[in-house]
Write a structure and sequence with these properties.
Layout lengths: L3 H28 L16 H10 L16 H11 L17
Helix pairs in contact: 1-2
């Protein structure tokens, strides 16, 4: 079973990697004036400021759900729930990363 933190990270990682690759490409092409960078239609360039803003928004430690002490097993969760008299929220899936299909 994948933790919510893992799922969010896996969803955010490709976006972050694309942003980093875009910034790195922009910097390298700025250094080499002889290479003309062509932008594909429909793709916007990501500025360093936009990247930093996006990176800050993707920090999961600042998200409210990250403060929850997620348990990796149902056994541990049941013991903790009984001790603290709290309900259990159970995420299940079929093995697919996004639990769809």
């Amino acid at each position: 079973m994948y933790s919510p933190r893992y799922i969010v990270w896996c969803l955010a990682l490709p976006l972050l990697m694309s942003a980093v690759a875009g910034v790195a490409t922009n910097r390298s092409s700025a250094d080499d004036k002889s290479v003309e960078k062509k932008t594909e239609p429909g793709h916007a360039k990501l500025t360093t400021g936009e990247f930093e803003k996006l990176h800050k928004q993707l920090q999961i430690k600042d998200q409210p759900w990250a403060a929850i002490s997620w348990q990796p097993s149902i056994t541990e969760a049941r013991k903790l729930a009984a001790k603290e008299n709290k309900p259990i929220l159970l995420f299940t899936g079929n093995g697919h990363l996004l639990a769809c299909g």
